[in-house]
Task: inverse folding
């Protein structure tokens, strides 16, 4: 059996290892000068390679088409991923939120572990070579055409990734291969990225990190997302952990009427916060309003809160009315901004959308349209939240295709 794997990323490498372990003749074709360019930048260079969670928790973190993942996560679970890498000699550690990293904190060690096994198995690795098209005949795979020649194959595994961070080599070629043989590719969207905000107000907040705040996203008043954690303001709007997770739920929506609202004091009820403000005010009776919030808020955000509260900044604290305090409370508990759009594919962590999973066998990752053609990893219409879940998708699907006889 001759097997071609297109793409030397996370999913392609595990597919190639498993296919070669079955004794097949395996050629892996990678356009870059080295393997795993995207893997290298994962987890800020530390590679959060999976999440040490149950299969159920994993599925809860898959945003698009979790049901499709049921079978492959049963075949190759997060704990199987951990065992797999430990058997390759990579020591692992588990951090906050069950995130799994190499003990060395180096993504290059993850790549090295996979590459060493590929070399040990003598997988034929073709670097600096780009697959241009796939060839089929009568509903069966025939091989691939590259910029250097042609390869015949009984099986082709497309592991070309998504369209984000195209500088890593993942430029969406797999979607074209899929379309060329009649597969449906859904609309593609950036996901796990920052949000561009409307207006100008956020600009003065650039660089401000907010910890322990609650971010809520709503569309025309209906809640889409609400969670507590960390976020930051940037030159275009907002980013950070809360925002990335939120973006995954906004990725496929028309964003008209979408608003994000920040509760700057989520640990305090309205009553507790009002008591706290009254206490601060009583200590600052003779001060002007603008000088009364230093103990409560980071400096950078005070001017905006004052503006939203609509209280004159030079007003003496002693004459601030209960009604004005109420509007201050609203500004503190729901500081809202209108969302303009998601950041683009150059910055997004993953692609939401891809080869329609309706046309893929969820057990084997084989195309239901073309015999011997497989799709694995991010090229599929499956995506998840941050936390190691996206690489787990790559490993589970890559492994599932890799063990097919
Ligand atoms: C900045 C960043 C940080 C991330 N951090 C994490 C993290 O910590 N944890 C996590 O779970 N996920 C993370 N992700 C997501 C994760 O990297 C992807 O989900 C995963 O890499 C997808 O694996 P893949 O094998 O499908 O595709 P890729 O890893 O993208 O690999 C595809 C490969 O195919 C090659 N290729 C494409 N087309 C062709 C062609 N025509 N011919 C030859 N070769 C081709 C590309 O060069 C590439 O090497 C991160 C992503 C980014 C951008």
Result:
């Amino acid at each position: 059996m001759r097997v071609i794997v297109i793409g030397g990323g996370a999913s392609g490498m595990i597919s190639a290892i498993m296919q070669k372990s079955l004794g097949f003749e395996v050629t892996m074709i990678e356009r870059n000068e080295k393997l795993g360019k995207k893997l290298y930048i994962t987890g800020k260079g530390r590679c959060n390679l999976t999440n040490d969670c149950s299969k159920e928790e994993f599925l809860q973190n898959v945003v698009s088409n979790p049901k499709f993942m049921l079978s492959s996560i049963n075949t190759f679970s997060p704990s199987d991923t951990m065992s797999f890498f430990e058997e390759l000699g990579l020591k692992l550690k588990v951090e906050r939120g069950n995130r799994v990293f190499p003990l060395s904190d180096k993504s290059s060690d993850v790549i090295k572990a996979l590459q060493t096994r590929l070399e040990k198995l003598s997988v034929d690795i073709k670097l600096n070579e780009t697959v241009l098209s796939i060839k089929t005949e009568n509903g069966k795979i025939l091989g691939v055409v590259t910029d250097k020649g042609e390869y015949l194959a009984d099986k082709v595994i497309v592991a070309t990734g998504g369209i984000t961070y195209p500088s890593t080599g993942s430029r969406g070629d797999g979607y074209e291969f899929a379309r060329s043989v009649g597969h449906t590719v859904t609309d593609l969207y950036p996901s796990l990225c920052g949000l561009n905000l409307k207006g100008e107000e956020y600009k003065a907040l650039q660089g401000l990190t907010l910890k322990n705040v609650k971010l809520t996203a709503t569309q025309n008043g209906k809640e889409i997302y609400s969670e507590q954690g960390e976020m930051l303001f940037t030159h275009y709007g907002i980013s950070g952990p809360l925002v990335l997770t939120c973006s995954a739920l906004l990725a496929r929506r028309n964003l008209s009427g979408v608003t994000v609202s920040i509760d700057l004091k989520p640990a305090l009820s309205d009553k507790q916060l009002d008591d706290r403000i009254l206490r601060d005010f009583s200590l600052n009776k003779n001060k002007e309003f603008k000088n009364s919030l230093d103990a409560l808020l980071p400096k950078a955000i005070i001017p905006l809160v004052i503006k939203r509260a609509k209280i004159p900044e030079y007003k003496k604290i002693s004459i601030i009315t209960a009604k004005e305090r109420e509007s201050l409370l609203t500004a503190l508990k729901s500081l809202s901004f209108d969302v303009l759009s998601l950041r683009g594919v150059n910055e997004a962590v993953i692609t939401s959308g891809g080869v329609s999973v309706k046309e893929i066998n969820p057990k084997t990752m084989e195309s239901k349209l073309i015999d011997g053609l497989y799709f694995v990893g991010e090229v599929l219409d499956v995506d998840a939240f941050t936390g190691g879940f996206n690489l787990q998708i790559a490993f589970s699907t890559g492994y599932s295709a890799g063990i097919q006889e």
Q: What stands out?
A: The chain has two domains: 2-189+349-402, 194-343. The pocket of flavin-adenine dinucleotide is lined by residues 6-12, 29-32, 37-39, 41-43, 47-48, 130-131, 159-161, 164-165, 169-170, 173, 349-350, 377-378, 388-391, 394 (CB under 6 Å). The radius of gyration is 25 Å. The domain at 2-189+349-402 is CATH 3.50.50.60 (FAD/NAD(P)-binding domain).
